[in-house]
Design a protein that fits this description.
Blueprint: H1 2-8, E1 12-19, E2 36-43, H2 50-66, H3 72-79, E3 93-98, E4 126-133, E5 136-143, E6 160-166, H4 167-173
Parallel strand pairs: 1-3, 3-4
Antiparallel strand pairs: 1-2, 4-5, 5-6
C-alpha cells in the first residue's frame, strides 16, 4: 500500500488477497482451488512512520483473515457494488503469497511435477505475486494493460521480476 501510495498519491487503497486457511474442516477427498478472496482496505497516512503503517496493516490483515469465511460474492452483494465483466467490483490490485512449493505426493508410481503456467491475460489491473523459494523471496508484478508486462530491466513479453533475495535480510528489503 505504501508503494501504491507513492506511485499514485492515493491514500485509500484496497488490496485483494487470496487466503486458504479454512476454519471449517474440508474433506480429504475434495479436490480444487480452495481459496477465498479478502479485501485489505485501509487509509495510508503519508506522515506516519513505515513501522506504524506496518502495525496497522498487521491488525487489519488479522481482521480480514478472521472474516475470511464470508464468501467474496456475499461481500460484493452486501456492498451493492456494480458488477462488470472487465473489472473487479471492490479492488484493482491483487497480492498473493505462496510459501515454498510442498513436496509432490507419491501417486502409485506416477511422477508428479509442478508445471509453470503463464496465462495470456491478467485478471486484475495490477497484481503482485510473491513466493518463497527456499531462502529466497521472489516478487513478480503483472499489469493488465497490453504490453505492460515486461522482465525487470528489459523489453519484451513476460512479467516484471521486482525483487529476489536470500535470507531474512533480503526478505526485509522486499
Amino acid at each position: 500500500q505504501i508503494l501504491l501510495h507513492r506511485m499514485t498519491g492515493q491514500t485509500d487503497i484496497a488490496l485483494g488477497l487470496l487466503v486458504s486457511g479454512r476454519a471449517a474442516p474440508v474433506p480429504q477427498d475434495v479436490v480444487g482451488f480452495l481459496v477465498n478472496t479478502v479485501v485489505l482496505r485501509q487509509p495510508v497516512d503519508p506522515a506516519a512512520a513505515f513501522a506504524t503503517h506496518l502495525a496497522v496493516t498487521r491488525d487489519r490483515l488479522a481482521e480480514a483473515i478472521a472474516d475470511q469465511d464470508s464468501p467474496f460474492e456475499a461481500v460484493v452483494a452486501s456492498l451493492g457494488a456494480d458488477r462488470r465483466a472487465d473489472r473487479n467490483p471492490i479492488f484493482d490490485v491483487l497480492v498473493t503469497w505462496q510459501d515454498d512449493m510442498p513436496a509432490m505426493p507419491a501417486m502409485g508410481g506416477l511422477q508428479v511435477v509442478p508445471v509453470d503456467t503463464v496465462l495470456p491475460f491478467a485478471k486484475f489491473d495490477l497484481s503482485f505475486h510473491i513466493q518463497r523459494e527456499g531462502a529466497a523471496i521472489r516478487a513478480v508484478r503483472r499489469n493488465h494493460r497490453p504490453g505492460a508486462d515486461r522482465p525487470a530491466g528489459g523489453a519484451g513479453p513476460g512479467p516484471a521480476v521486482i525483487g529476489a533475495g536470500r535470507g531474512p535480510a533480503a526478505a526485509d528489503r522486499q
